[in-house]
Structure to design on (322 residues):
């Protein structure tokens, strides 16, 4: 059994050095380490090669989804692919823990802690609301027993996850129209519709700096998220109730306004509407309706237990589950 690590990368050679050094500490070593360089201008490809990694050189920044797909294509002969952000470091037993837990699942992820404050959760697994807004479950909360239960999941953040290469290819890889952001949510929903699932294994611990390339409230980040929320609705929300979508998207726009990114949000919404015109929906019907309700119920359950964020409190009031 061979396992490859695939790491999309764009500039930030300092992060690249750190992640490559960290991968050498795994108790179950990776058979291959593949850096997919999105047109870096800081010498990153040369540094990666000097440190023993394979490098796929892309002519320009094609986004996270395209980079992952090219890396998985390169990883021929490997049964498993670890998809990792370039600002992630792993506990030495991360890969060993996921391999021991994954069983027949298509993918697995572990507990992701904040690299800046390891007492805080950066993410666990993801859920999606009927308003097409995704949530990194647990993000920003204190680590504790709430996050120590192994469970089946629908969506794994590709910040740090392990996927079965055959299932990844069966699903057609990541949708490159998303470029970056929410491509992993789309992948998880397609897996769910096809009867595939994932595992959350809290014993596999990673540390994530977060938003190291663009920044959390960078205008490009907001534009891409807003655009990709529209793509998600076009692909997966056909026939679903419209009011939760309207409420969820407008509320997210207000959050962007609060952070000075209203124009970026509007540009993303308009771009998403244009792209969505020619997009075919993924057949889901009643299955997707059930999935969205279950996923949103999990978001609200976590909010009740860990404390309500304003966005979710207002959304739940505007579009209550019935």
């Amino acid at each position: 059994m061979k396992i490859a690590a695939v790491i999309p990368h764009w500039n930030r050679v300092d992060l690249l050095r750190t992640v490559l050094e960290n991968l050498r500490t795994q108790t179950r070593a990776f058979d291959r380490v593949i850096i997919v360089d999105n047109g870096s201008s800081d010498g990153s490809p040369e540094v990666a090669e000097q440190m023993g990694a394979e490098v796929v050189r892309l002519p320009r920044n094609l986004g996270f989804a395209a980079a992952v797909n090219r890396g998985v294509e390169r990883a021929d002969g490997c049964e498993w692919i670890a998809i990792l952000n370039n600002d992630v470091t792993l506990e030495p037993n991360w890969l060993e823990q996921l391999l021991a837990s994954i069983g027949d699942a298509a993918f697995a992820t572990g507990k992701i802690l904040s690299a800046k404050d390891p007492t805080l959760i950066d993410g666990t697994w993801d859920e999606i609301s009927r308003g097409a807004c995704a949530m990194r479950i647990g993000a920003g909360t204190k680590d504790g027993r709430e996050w120590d239960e192994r469970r089946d999941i629908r969506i794994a953040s590709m910040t740090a996850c392990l996927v079965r290469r055959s299932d990844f290819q069966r699903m057609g890889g990541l949708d490159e129209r998303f470029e970056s952001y929410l491509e992993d949510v789309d992948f998880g929903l397609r897996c769910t519709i096809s009867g595939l699932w994932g595992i959350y294994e809290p014993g596999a611990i990673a540390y994530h700096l977060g938003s190291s390339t663009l920044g959390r409230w960078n205008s490009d980040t907001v534009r891409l998220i807003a655009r990709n929320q529209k793509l998600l609705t076009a692909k997966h929300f056909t026939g679903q109730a419209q009011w939760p979508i309207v409420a969820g998207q407008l509320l997210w726009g207000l959050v962007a306004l609060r952070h000075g990114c209203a124009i970026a949000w509007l540009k993303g919404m308009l771009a998403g509407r244009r792209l969505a015109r020619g997009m075919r929906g993924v057949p889901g019907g009643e299955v997707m309706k059930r999935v969205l309700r279950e996923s949103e119920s999990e978001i609200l359950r976590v909010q009740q237990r860990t404390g309500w964020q304003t966005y979710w409190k207002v959304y739940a009031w505007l579009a209550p589950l019935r």
